[in-house]
Amino acid sequence: MRAFHRTVPVAATKLRVPAGFAADGLPLAVQLVGRRHQDTTVVQVAAQLEAVRPWTGRVPDLAREPA
Question: Model-level pTM?
Fold first, then answer.
């Protein structure tokens, strides 16, 4: 799995939203970053992502042995 790393200004609006599960069953998340003073836009996008989540009710099995 690849990760994207970039420095984000402290004043930027940030929000992390659940984004499903990886093939190994561990939870994934997406971090939304908006421009300064764009809180409403970031929250609206997060709400749209949460509204279409097909994994509602699923929880990770953290008790199992790692692969």
Answer: 0.65
